[in-house]
Structures are given as C-alpha cells and as structure tokens.
Write a structure and sequence with these properties.
alpha/beta, elongated, 11-stranded mixed β-sheet, 288 residues
Length: 288
C-alpha cells in the first residue's frame, strides 16, 4: 500500500497553500493525506499543567479541523486523516517522514519575519530528513501546475538516484515534460594546452555535463517511455541556473546526500538557494 503524503499544518497562509498543493498531489497519485499539527501542551499532562494548556489544545484541534475541512472541500475523494502530536514541529515531522511518501510544508511560518525568511521548521526538516520533503513556494502558475514541466537538477551523483526516480514519477503522473538540467562552468585555471584543443575548454566541460545528464536519466527513461525528457546543459552557477529556470516549472526536484561526520543532511548551496528563492515548489530527495 502506498504511504500517505504528510502535511505539516499550522494555520498560516503558507501552510494553507501547502495544504492545497498536497491535496492536488494526493489526488494525482491516488494517495491518502495525513494532516499533522505539532504542539507541546500535552507534555504537561499529569504534572500540574499550566492554565493555558486547555486553550492550546483547543487551538491545535481547531487547526487540524479547519485544515481537514479545507482539504475535503478541495477534493472530497482524497482520504484524509488528522493527528495532533505532542512534540516540537521539527522533531515530530522528522519522525513522521519515514512513514510518508513525502512530507509537505509551507515555505514560511508564523512570526515577525514570516514574509522575509524561509521558515526555520521547513529548512530544518528539509535539511535533516532521510525521506523526500516538499517545500511549497512560488507563483500562482507554479502552484497550480500551469507550466506542464518538472525541473530536475542533475548533480554529480544523479545516476540511479531517488531524486531522478521521483522526478520521472512526477512527470509521468502529471503528463508533462521532464526538464533534466546540468549546469557547468569552465574553470578559470584552465591551462594553455587544454585551451589549444580544437574544440576549446568550454566545449569539453559542456560535453562532460551532457554525458552526466544522459547517464542520469537513461535507466528511468526506459522505465517511463511516455515521459518526454528534455536534456539541457547550461553554463553558469548551478543555483542561479535552477532558480532562473524554476520560473517556468511546476516542481523543482533536487537530490541530497548525507556526509559522514556531519549532523543530518547537508543541503549545500544549491539546496539552500532553491528553498529560499525558487519560483515553484521544491522537493529535496535524499539518498538513503
């Protein structure tokens, strides 16, 4: 049985946009939807709870209840369940991630700087989860899948990666183009010997990037013959290339990997930039 989509709900505007996106995604893939709200008032049970604990419980119940009503109105056919978890949001969502097809979050939370910064919960979960995390952001066309394009950022270790499989599955379900993009740059320290080659150093790095794209998508392209793959190489910094191209995409798919000796997942410059600035929803798919 397919695992559900888990949506972190907090009643914020960004959270509601993420909920709407998740309802559409669940319907697209035939998945159940699990709405999760994390709060800590229950930790006080049995140890002289403060007077405001019942009020916090009522707020939590209201958040998930309103979210469930909204989801049901958007698509009555999607199976919906709700739960209030007694923990901080990051810990609760990280614990839910292994039992979800993906965790879906809004790009901003509540608070004074909600309109300026990526929410700390979204960033922490995307950086540390060992399963896919979607941060829903972007313009109206991207949120409503108006571009008919899934954008895949091809990294150095993309061949056979869960990110590539995720991207193909999305493109197939949406019936849209998969834009597999690899950014490349010609190092400034290139030697004269290489520069004297007939094709020049830039051609060498462009060919290398093209080969990486071909290798990354080859296996999944055979498994998903109905998906039209557009293989693209672009000169420039990867984070700038992908952010620019995200303006014409409905979803940006990025891979991530654990680094030994580091706590959690290290997103790197591309991941951080995309989560903060992409013009469409971003999914981070770690290597397990």
């Amino acid at each position: 049985m397919e695992l559900p989509l888990v949506v972190g709900v907090d009643g914020s505007d960004a959270g509601l946009r993420a909920l709407d996106w998740a309802v559409d995604e669940a319907a697209r893939h035939g998945l159940p939807l699990r709405l999760v709200h994390a709060c800590q008032w229950e930790r006080y049970e049995g140890v002289a709870p403060p007077e405001h604990a019942p009020a916090e419980q009522a707020i939590a119940d209201s958040v998930v209840g309103n979210a469930a009503d909204r989801a049901a109105r958007r698509n009555p056919e999607v199976e919906i369940s709700v739960q209030v978890l007694a923990d901080d949001p990051v810990t609760a969502l990280l614990r839910e991630a292994p039992y979800a097809t993906a965790v879906v979050l809004g790009s901003k939370g509540r608070g004074e700087f909600a309109d300026l910064l990526l929410g700390s919960v979204s960033l922490s979960v995307a950086a540390r989860a060992t399963h896919p995390v979607v941060v829903v952001r972007g313009d109206k066309a991207g949120l409503e899948s108006g571009h008919d394009r899934v954008l895949l950022g091809v990294g150095d270790t993309a061949q056979g990666s869960p990110a590539v499989r995720f991207a193909f599955r999305e493109a197939e379900a949406r019936g849209c183009v998969l834009d597999a993009v690899r950014a490349w740059r010609c190092p400034a320290y290139e030697t004269a010997d290489r520069a004297e080659r007939a094709a020049g150093p830039a051609h060498h790095y462009e060919q290398q990037a093209s080969a990486l794209v071909d290798a990354a998508v080859a296996e999944e392209a055979e498994e998903h013959p109905t998906v039209h793959v557009r293989r693209t190489t672009v000169e420039g910094p990867a984070h700038k290339v992908l952010i620019r191209r995200s303006a014409a995409a409905d979803l940006l798919v990025l891979g991530a990997r654990h680094r030994h000796g580091h706590f959690g997942l290290q997103l790197g410059r591309v991941g951080h930039a995309a989560l903060h600035h992409a013009a469409c929803p971003v999914v981070v798919v770690p290597r397990r």
